[in-house]
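In response to reviewer comment 3 from the previous cycle, which asked for concrete evidence that the modeling workflow produces usable outputs, we include below a single protein chain processed end to end. The sequence was submitted unchanged, and the resulting structure tokens are shown without manual editing.
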Amino acid sequence: MDISKQLELIKRGTVEIISEKELIAKLEKKRPLIIKAGFDPSAPDIHLGHTVLLRKMRHFQDLGHRIVFLIGDFTGLIGDPTGRSEIRKRLTEKEVAENAKTYKKQVFKILDEKKTEVVFNSAWLAKMTLKDTLELMAHTTVSQVLARADFSERYKSGKDISFLEFMYPLLQAYDSVELKADVELGGTDQKFNLLMGRELQKDFGQEEQAVIMTPLLIGLDGVNKMSKSLGNHIGIDEKPEEMFGKLMSISDELMIQYYELLTDENLEEIRKLHPMEAKKKLAREIVRQYHGEGPSDSALKDFENKFQKRDPFTELKLETKAIKPTLCEFLMSEKILPSKGEYRRLIDQDAIEVNGARIKDLDFKLEPSKEYRIKVGKKRFLKVIFQP
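The workflow returned the following structure tokens.
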């Protein structure tokens, strides 16, 4: 594949490349590049958030490059301080070892096992002497590390930062030196650590790795990055029906990000579909990736039987003397909402729908002799027919 086609695949779902010019120069060498991505086994299961990087690794793998899946069993004992507002609880060696076994098993649902090199950074970090460690520490300064946003905020607020946490970026960076990485992949929250790898490689006389950053996958809450600790995740080993149901719960806006980062579907074609059909297609495709065609079809049928063939709207026939009552007046009269203020709040949150359309008009009026299917929030459904 020519370089322009390679770049088209590599750049899908990426936020920043440092630098694209350097990456092109590496690709022009016409040799398999060493592509590194590290994962600390801090939890026993891989979720869809992890697969964003794994899929990018698979793209490079399909292009014929050398993939190094790095399990940070040594750095996992410290714990990545990225995004942390306080010192995180450290894992035991036994916990890290057990989690690493699960990681090694699950990644091959995405990567080609025969073409993937799995390495553990304890192979070199555990052998470092005190002298080696001190030599490594000499490559950075406290002021450089404190320039990092999360450390800076903790320092200013008087919260503790351990020396171990200071060491983490250096150890991750040294992994790139040891592996002679041409490219390192990571999320946008890893930028400081990834750039440290470039600096350390330069200090050790190596060509600096190109850095490719992907966005953080937003979790089911629609706000925070997908995380098991926040309970907003979808594990790749979850049952097909559970996975399918969770994917159907995401917002229409989030659905496009999931398509871009978790599938290879044509986004322009997806945007032409009805949102419900697009979401079912997404859920079916992701379940298929991790469980196969049969379980994916079964999960779709299960969802349709449970949710789409059961009308959640209850019928309520009303007689009213009011001429074109407003939706707000109706919901208050039926004690569905307590006040105009609550109605306004739900309107602002796009949480009120009439006949499938989100209501923006505070004075939306209801016509006599028409049927209305009204949804308020996530759990209140009404089918209302006004008698003239």
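The chain has a mean pLDDT of 85. We consider this sufficient to address the reviewer's concern, and the full set will be provided in the supplementary archive.
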